Amino acid sequence: MNLQLRRLGWDESFQLSFETINDGAFIPARVIRENKGQYIVNTGDGESVARMSGVALHGAMTSSGIPTVGDWLAVERVPGSEDLVIHSILPRKSFFERQAAGNESKNQSVAANFDYLFLVSGLDGDFNLRRIQRYLSLAWNSQAQPVIILNKADLLEDLAEILSEVKKMAMGVPVFTISAMVPESLRCLDDFFEEGKTVVLLGSSGVGKSSLVNALLGEERLATRAIRAADCRGRHTTTWRELLLIPRGGMLIDLPGMRELQLTGESGGIEKTFADVERFVNQCRFRNCRHQGEPGCAVAEAIENGQLESDRYHQFMKLRRESSRARVRQAARKKTMNAKQKKNQDKERFFKEIAIQNRRNAKAKRKFDW
Question: Are 284 and 308 in contact (CB under 8 A)?
Fold first, then answer.
């Protein structure tokens, strides 16, 4: 196996998937960066520009069918060109997506094939436990291990209280306190950056992701900007998604800061993030209990006797309602897409039948003229 590919995260599972589709002309490549319909990929021998073939692009009905940073691809060299053509995306071992910002019902692919998802939060005026809960609810759906990173620890003299709150909320998810400006504080993250392993950095603007990337790279690779003093909100510094090789080993996918992170409709992540709430919900006497005064409601009893915090329960219900609305919107969009696809197929079939009939008529005419 190519050692450079192995460093990029290539392993036996990807090799097996690749062999099942390779006709001898394909080579594997990993997406390093996206750029308006074209992709910068690494084949192990260097970086190249790749674009999707017409067939692959036509078959991509959703965003998950379009390559994203971290994806492994089967590509083919274009004769007489240095560019590559993307024929297919290899099965992903992990995948993170979010609902597109605004009122759109479609999902947006963010990153693929990573081992750890670092949820970075700044310990400044913009610190928010509910935001971390929201990030965790999405992170668990990715099939990778979430890790909570509390940055800017140097701004607080006493971390004990906040750290205790976060660990209690995290339900067993690893939690680390660091300062991107203090290199020694990053040693606790060394075990995550093994050769072939990929880490994704996720967080809102201003949490210090760019500073953390620079510290891990050992160079000022990314520009950093001061946060607004009025509300401690950051300004977007990173404006694209990119996979970076870490000198000590491993890789890092840096994502732009997210102003808005809506749920995608999957409920599994919420159940894991709020496993304690889910446990009480399942203990209610009635399956359709609304937890609003019904007899035998285990949730109400847990809140009353102090086993469950009311605020945590309400956040659980809020995210579950949001996830349910997202599922309804996506189901409607899927129905519309299926109808559109069927209409296009009917149109293609109609014109194909006309073309066949025209060829038959032409053949019959030639026979008659002869």
Answer: no
The predicted-structure confidence for 318-351, as pLDDT tens digits, reads as follows: 998 888 887 777 777 667 666 766 777 777 777 7
Nearest 5°: phi and psi at 59?
-85, -5
Residues 183-234 have pLDDT tens digits of 899 999 999 999 999 999 999 888 989 889 999 998 876 655 554 444 444 4
Structure tokens at 226: 């001061």
| CB contact at 8 A, 100 and 326 | no
Q: Is the pLDDT of residue 369 over 70?
A: no
How far CA 16 is from CA of 21, 112, 142, 194, 226, in Å, comes to 9, 18, 22, 22, 47
- Residue 189 Cα to chain centre, angstroms: 21
Side chain identity at residue 35, one-letter code: N
CA 108 to each of CA 112, 190, 192, 254, 263: distance values in angstroms, whole numbers, following the listed order: 12, 30, 26, 16, 11
**In this structure, are residues 99 and 325 in contact, taking their beta carbons and an 8 Å threshold?**
no
**Cα 4 from Cα 43, distance rounded (Å):** 8
Structural tokens at position 25: 């002309």
- Span 60-104, pLDDT tens digits: 556 678 899 999 999 998 888 888 999 999 999 999 987 765 555
> Is-contact 141 267, C-beta < 8 A?
no
What is the pLDDT averaged over residues 227-246? Answer: 63
